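SAMPLE LOG
Freezer: B-3
Tube label: C17
Construct: single chain, 548 aa
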Amino acid sequence: MSKHILYSCLATTLLACASCTDTLLSEQPVPQGEEQVLIGEDAIPGVLNIEVTEELADRLEAMADQPATRAAAVFTRAADAIGTERLEQVFHIGGRFEARQRKAGLHLCYRIRFDKTVPVAEAAAQLKKEDGIRMVEAVYPRKQEEEATWPQSLPIQPAPATRATKNLPFNDPLLYQQWALHNDGTVVDYTGKVLKDFEPGADVNAFEAWKITTGTPNVIVAVLDHGIYWKHEDLKDAMWVNEAELNGQPGVDDDDNGYVDDVYGYNFAEDKPDVESDSNDHGTHCAGIIGARANNGKGIAGIAGGNGQPGTGVRIMSCQTISGEWSNSEKSFEYAADMGAVIASCSWMDPFDPYERLSAFTKRAVDYFIQYAGCDENGNQRPDSPMKGGIVIAAAGNDGWITTDPKAYLKHYPAGYDPVVAVSSFGPKRKRAWYSCFGDWIDICAPGGDAMYQGSGGDILSTVKPTKDNGNTAYMPKWGTSQATPYVSGIAALIVSAKGGPGFTNEDCKHRLLTALRPFDIDADNPEFAGKLGAGYIDAALALADNK
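STRUCTURE (predicted):
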């Protein structure tokens, strides 16, 4: 996860987590029944999530045309006490997938907005007294950490002509700087200086994988993140396109999916279709790692970005879940599953405060995606889908610098949720990146960059939106488990491209993903983190091999 997206946590909470050896916060029980609702100091004022009973859900849906008044009508005791302003459903309910949405309990999930001057804990206590409310949960912001002074994101210089095409399979002019795809032990840094201190094989073995597939357009990867600058020269041909909305009437929900003008995805954080105006490059950077068009004579090559020929390269769906302090990842998972994505790339995490766990509604959303992605309204694999069920891949986090004690680690979510693939990060010398979180809950390790300790030029180069602030460059290096995560997502997309089809399941893909390892002992390379970085370094070529 990159420094640009990690959620800030209270310093006291981090220190407490880091020093804990026997009892982790994630082991604390989730409050239920009449127990006190734990409210952290970072809770957003004026908003709470509530889960209601079926009976209460029926009453609320009957008043759906009165969102500003229905809460007052049904929450007779709490409404006035907390200054209720609005009650809204967290998920979209309706359309041809309504039956499975209800089966998954998405219709029971509501968000109540109230007077911001009322303490969140007080409002939660009032709501817990109401009949028909089964769960009350605070809502937390997903904040960005402050910019670090190291390593700086420097504009990329043009490739020296003698190095730009040396032993490279494609003509992308900056491919030679993408050590994570292929690392022969040398690299040219951002000034054009030739370095020779990288470790050969510290990569994902992409060049060999590309001999089998470079990705196919029937595989859709949802990037749940900041928005994607879809006008980018290396991304505009990689985007998933909702043809009904592209060719429909502006301002109209042409495909009747509950969203208006969602051509390339949707901005769930701000409830609008506009995703390209997002000023944060994080989503664009992650999208480029997965699907930047390869062999097009421009910029970089995404790991599943095709080979320059029509009908190659996966498609990227922009599901903007973050904007400033707000997030709405829950509805993003539902949308991605219902609109055809089978892989969800999540370079973010839920905050620690007040205890480590996956928030209740995010868990419902993740489960929904895993079970129903690639499926029709009856739960059967769609004839146009290459896989039944979905895979969620998430960043382990960048808090690994807090402690190196293998008994004291920070378990982040959604990565820490067992059905999710948790990704740690290594650098170009095949060592754990200085920032990467670790623990026995990690599944796999992928390149995330480490120019601080493992060599100049050792961060991850990808796409950004050209702006005055970055010198109008379209490509910049960044680092983090946020960058490692889309490498794993891209490899999952290659697996589905090569092996997907009728009967191919998310478990088939996940098995290949987690058992295809580079021929290096990750524990021997990182003895102080033995058993804490995942099964090993991921290998894209082996993930596609027919190994009996």
